[in-house]
From TrEMBL:
This is Ananain. Keywords: Disulfide bond, Hydrolase, Protease, Thiol protease. It comes from the Eukaryota. GO terms for biological process: proteolysis. Residues 5-62 form the Cathepsin propeptide inhibitor domain. InterPro entries: Papain-like_cys_pep_sf, Pept_cys_AS, Peptidase_C1A, Peptidase_C1A_C, Prot_inhib_I29. Gene3D superfamilies: Cysteine proteinases. PROSITE patterns: THIOL_PROTEASE_CYS. GO terms for molecular function: cysteine-type peptidase activity. Belongs to the peptidase C1 family.
């Protein structure tokens, strides 16, 4: 398992501040790998878990920076009626969009609090594939044109300091 952890550290460019931190992270990594392997071997789910850049984090550490939703900010939004399909027949009980080639690779939103945007883009990518037969990634580079949106997100705590610094480094005014 040590060798596996070493390979993982190289792949994800992980460096720990001292041997104690490294040992702590190794134990968490080991626990997570054991959980992932047990889960995948149980084979009772339609998906598999995998080792990724977060494999040396506890659940609490992983969730903490990603759980910044401010529900009170949405309390004044007026709810609309739910959209209902009419005259729809012969709908299958399930559809696997992967089999239709309408699913793009997973994107990492980092600590950005805009999961709704990632979901909307993924849905649009899938619809584009079903409509045109071509699967393409919809990506938008950060440019000075997007600056007002960026400031809004920053002001409402939807970006962390790491993302802000990274984005500011790449902006050219």
């Amino acid at each position: 398992m040590y060798e596996r952890h070493e390979q993982w550290m190289l792949r994800y460019d992980k460096v720990y501040k001292d041997p104690q931190e490294r040992e702590k992270r190794f134990k968490i990594f080991q626990d997570n790998v054991n959980y992932i392997e047990a889960f995948n071997n149980a084979n009772n789910k339609p998906y598999k878990l995998g080792i990724n850049q977060f494999s040396d984090l506890t659940n609490e550490e992983f969730i903490a920076p990603r759980n910044k939703f401010k529900g009170h900010m949405c309390s004044s939004i007026t709810r609309t009626t739910t959209f209902k399909y009419e005259n729809v027949t012969a709908v299958p009980s399930s559809i696997d969009w992967r089999q239709k080639g309408a699913v793009t690779p997973i994107k990492d939103q980092g600590q950005c609090g805009c999961c709704w945007a990632f979901s909307a883009v993924a849905a649009t990518e899938g619809i584009h594939k079903l409509s045109t037969g071509k699967l393409c990634l919809l990506v938008c580079p950060i440019t000075p044109i997007s600056w007002p949106s960026f400031l809004y997100m920053h002001d409402y705590n939807n970006l962390g300091p790491t993302e802000i610094i990274h984005i500011l480094k790449h902006l050219k005014f």
